[in-house]
Design a protein that fits this description.
Layout: H1 2-6, H2 11-26, H3 31-41, H4 44-62, H5 65-90
Length: 92
């Protein structure tokens, strides 16, 4: 896996290829069976969810909601982050 990451392969592809190699060479499972199981396990619902997630991101980007969320996030979490140090000292 480190070799594929060093070759600037994306993380999801590095995990896929190392898992595939591990199943074929280490476990001794036939590559055709692995590919068939992967193809059958693809769910139509999961593929549609990915498309709607991308659509939602595009809608949020074109509107001003993203900028508002980025501005309000530090204000909402400032008090939580300031109390984390106190919790670490008290509960150790």
């Amino acid at each position: 896996m480190f070799g594929t990451l060093a070759a600037t392969v994306p993380v999801f592809m590095a995990l896929f290829f190392t898992g595939l190699i591990g199943l074929v060479w280490v476990a001794g499972i036939d590559a055709q069976i692995v590919i068939e199981v992967l193809y059958r396990s693809m769910d139509k619902f999961a593929l549609i969810v990915v498309l709607f997630f991308v659509l939602c991101g595009n809608i949020m980007t074109t509107g001003s909601i993203v900028e508002k969320l980025v501005k309000t996030a530090p204000r909402r979490t400032r008090s939580v982050l300031s109390r984390e140090g106190q919790r670490c000292v008290l509960f150790q």
